[in-house]
Give the backbone structure.
Amino acid sequence: MLNLRETIDRQVSLALKGLLSLEEAPLAVCSPSRPGFLDYTLSLPMKLARTRHRAPVVIAQELQPAVADMACAGFVEAVAPGYINIQLSDSFVADELTSMLGTAPAVLLQKEANGQKIQVEFVSANPTGPLHVGNGRGAALGSVLATLLETQGYDVDREYYVNDYGSKMKLFTASIAHYLFPMLGLEYPMPAEGYQGAYVPELAQAIHDRRGSELSSLLEEQRFAIIEEGGKTLVLASIRRALEEMGVSFDTWFSERYLIENGWNDRVLQQFRDRDVVYEKDNAVWLRSTDFGDDKDRVLVRHDGEPTYTLTDAAYHFNKFQRGYVKSIDVFGADHIGHIVPMQALMKSLGLPDDFLEIIIYQIVHFLRGGQRVVLSKQTGEIIELADLVREVGKDQTRVFFLLSSADSELEFDLEAAKENSLDNPAYYLKYTHARLCSVERQVRGIGAGVPSEATPADILFLKTPEDRELLKCLLKAQDEVDDAARTRQPHRVLYLAGELAKAVNTFYQKEKVIQEDAGLVRARMLLVLASQRLLQAYAHVLGVTLPESM
RNA sequence: GGGCCCAUAGCUCAGCUGGAUAGAGCAACGGAUUUCUAAUCCGUCGGUCGCAGGUUCAAAUCCUGCUGGGCUCGCCA
């Protein structure tokens, strides 16, 4: 589809070329009109009033003829206090509808490939336990952002960073050992701050079942290696399963251990040394990150010789850069808010491009049941694992409810509303609307009326009621909005767009009959039905939800 | 104390190149059904867009200050 705002802007600046000065030209941009007005609006006359010392409405009248001459313009009017309203021409609208009908939904909103590789890293929870319901928001946002970026022509890779190295991992291994050693007739103390969940003894049992005989004959160090590997593998499998049930998959599961074992920390440390941005203090190696905007210098190598997370993170992103991504977008929970400044300082100190790393932070999710906020703890017996949440409310409902507000805002996830099989539930509303559109199509085919495969300007002449026009506007502005959502990295906007389209469809459906006497009108309305159906499917593709053909 | 996020209708939230009367869903009330799926639709009610300044022809939107809430400030990851 065309981005209409861009298209019109281009035509406007061409049309007004001789009428605007160089300084004035950039002001000639249109915006979508409010309901009740024509399709697009230019507020240019208002902006020119000051420098031109004329009343805006007079300027509007002067510019109107040139604007009306544009190829895409149908009816154009200058109105007080100084707007130029544009209605798209019938042939232009017909061309757009034709292209919508001739394009598969999965690529309807897709631009041409731009040859750039971009990475979205999300979830990346430690492999030391099952995913928590809170991780679900990152999963939903990250996966939708990834498809959203694909619409912009990027070659997108979805990556999960597996933090399988370091003190958390040691703690995890020790916690399993505490339950596993007694099965070998040995003892091992539960470490302070050890992992507590019921899954820990289960992991111990599973590892013992598989490799118990081996374990008893090994040295302690080898034993721990097996426990760690076994625990990690089992947990990652459960994480992967939970995500798949939510419709989320990854291209790459990238191991932190891999980085370290393959010398990436050393490489990046050398890079820091070459750039002369490190120093030694208290037996540790420090990065002079304050030179790059950080509020304090960071330790890269601890006094005991172990790398810090900071060093490995630098190595990780350096590695991403080497893999050829033009950009890495990392999606983190609000508890990582403090990482933005240090990480950007890291990128700078490594000499990576300023815009290489983008960090998206999503705020906390509160879960509601019976109108009350749910306290997630073992004591309350409330669901706490993502897999349980998806099982309880369903894949599509889970995805939709995690997208109900902007990542910047805290989110209330109403478990009962999400489960509800009624149209108060936005996920169901989308499904129902799609089923209804499909039903109309079946009916029309059933009575033997022609189902159009392309639109002509004559068809558009039939679409004159407010409901027809509003639905048309919803269809035509899709690419504008999707491009905006992608540019501003706001996946939730796609859900709102889909909801808006569904609303327009249902209002149209209620008010205007598709099947009726006038064959020309049937055909024209069918264009709306089919295009709406395609567009709804296109949105659903981006959102990762499934739309049934009947309910 | 520093950094970041938030504050819009009774509730949950949209509103992103600054534009015309501030929107949706829920809740409340009232309507539409010999149905192309009423699992729908329409209408009414409901807002000093946290407060105070500023920029602008124009501010929910941009800037400054303040108030309230959230997250966060490790040689953890």
User: Anything to note?
Assistant: The CA atoms of residues 470 and 504 of chain A lie 7 Å apart. The first strand of chain A starts at residue 30 and ends at 32. Chain A has a mean pLDDT of 94.
